[in-house]
Amino acid sequence: KGTTRGTLLALEHMRTDKGGKGGVIINISSAAGLNVNPLSPVYSATKAGIIALTRSLAMNSEVKSAGVRLNVVCPAFVDTDLIKEINDDNCLDVQKASKFIEMIGVVSKEVVVDCFMELVRDVNQNGAVVKCSKMDGTQYTSIEVKPVT
């Protein structure tokens, strides 16, 4: 809910057709939103929603013409308190999740910041989904877009 409200509020104030100066909105989602995640299905679903919101707005012709770009960063496991606070209240199988985190690896916050800044600086990126993980590094993810006619 917060990401949706924040994105729409920023968009309202940034649109050149409404007196704004344009710019870029970068949302943070998660690699969990790109894949099926049976260990944390609600978390995965909410992160997929952020990706869909960002890409849908980025592909909207009114938004495009209003001088605002939207992109999303999808980090895998990041060295934050969230990783340290996995428990039975937020995960269906803590032991499996811990093994999965160990297998995938934990990326530093600095790597996520680098992904974020790359999307800010590259004025040609709109609707981009960038995954960053310890295992795979930085990857632009291709999601097929079928425009509504």
From TrEMBL:
Keyword Oxidoreductase listed: yes
Keywords: Oxidoreductase
Top-rank taxon, per record: Eukaryota
GO molecular function (one): 15-hydroxyicosatetraenoate dehydrogenase activity
Entry annotated with the keyword Glycosyltransferase: no
Enzyme Commission number, as recorded: 1.1.1.141, 1.1.1.232
Pfam families xrefs: adh_short
Catalytically driven reaction(s): 14-hydroxy-(4Z,7Z,10Z,12E,16Z,19Z)-docosahexaenoate + NAD(+) = 14-oxo-(4Z,7Z,10Z,12E,16Z,19Z)-docosahexaenoate + NADH + H(+); resolvin D2 + NAD(+) = 7-oxoresolvin D2 + NADH + H(+); (15S)-hydroxy-(5Z,8Z,11Z,13E)-eicosatetraenoate + NAD(+) = 15-oxo-(5Z,8Z,11Z,13E)-eicosatetraenoate + NADH + H(+); (11R)-hydroxy-(5Z,8Z,12E,14Z)-eicosatetraenoate + NAD(+) = 11-oxo-(5Z,8Z,12E,14Z)-eicosatetraenoate + NADH + H(+)
GO CC annotation terms, alphabetical: cytoplasm
Protein family membership: Belongs to the short-chain dehydrogenases/reductases (SDR) family.
Described function: Catalyzes the NAD-dependent dehydrogenation (oxidation) of a broad array of hydroxylated polyunsaturated fatty acids (mainly eicosanoids and docosanoids, including prostaglandins, lipoxins and resolvins), yielding their corresponding keto (oxo) metabolites. Decreases the levels of the pro-proliferative prostaglandins such as prostaglandin E2 (whose activity is increased in cancer because of an increase in the expression of cyclooxygenase 2) and generates oxo-fatty acid products that can profoundly influence cell function by abrogating pro-inflammatory cytokine expression.
Record-given protein name: 15-hydroxyprostaglandin dehydrogenase [NAD(+)]
Organism whose genome encodes this protein: Magallana gigas
